[in-house]
Write a structure and sequence with these properties.
By secondary structure, this protein is α+β, with helices and mostly antiparallel strands. The chain has a single domain, classed as Aspartate Aminotransferase, domain 1, CATH 3.90.1150. The protein is about 40% helix and about 25% strand. The protein is built from five helices and five strands; from the N terminus they run H-H-E-E-E-E-H-H-E-H. Helix 2 packs across helix 5. This is DUF1801 domain-containing protein. It comes from Chryseobacterium kimseyorum. Pfam families: DUF1801 (PF08818).
């Protein structure tokens, strides 16, 4: 049976303490970008909205944290992923649990997505 949750806290409790710490750091990093964020659960993952639009999603797995900033951000930051040897795909990047989260890179991707959303509303 698949685990279900209704908020970030319930989701975080599904994982060991060390993973919970990384998830909380990611959450704080995203929140630090603007007070205008809304937390929600999307596709059974913790997610954020900005100006009522999906901003980013994230999820923990056995060996990594998946970060889903949508395809344009992946394309924009592809060279950073290659430089740091992160696995990535069309809409996601994987941050190994054996390494510190690249909070600087996460911050930049969130800012990129916010600008995308802002420009589309204009």
């Amino acid at each position: 049976m698949k685990n279900t949750f209704t908020n970030f806290e319930e989701y975080f409790l599904l994982f060991p303490k060390d993973v919970q710490t990384k998830l909380e750091a990611l959450r704080k990093t995203v929140h630090a970008q603007t007070p205008e964020l809304e937390e929600y659960v999307g596709y059974q993952m913790p997610a954020f909205r900005y100006k009522k639009k999906p901003l980013v999603y994230f999820a923990a797995y056995k060996n990594h944290i998946g970060f889903y900033p949508l395809p344009e951000a992946i394309i924009h930051f592809e060279s950073h992923f290659k430089e740091r040897k992160y696995k990535f795909s069309k809409g996601a990047v994987q941050f190994p649990l054996t390494e510190n989260l690249p909070l600087d890179l996460i911050e930049k991707m969130v800012q990129f997505r916010m600008m995308e959303i802002y420009q589309k509303k204009s």
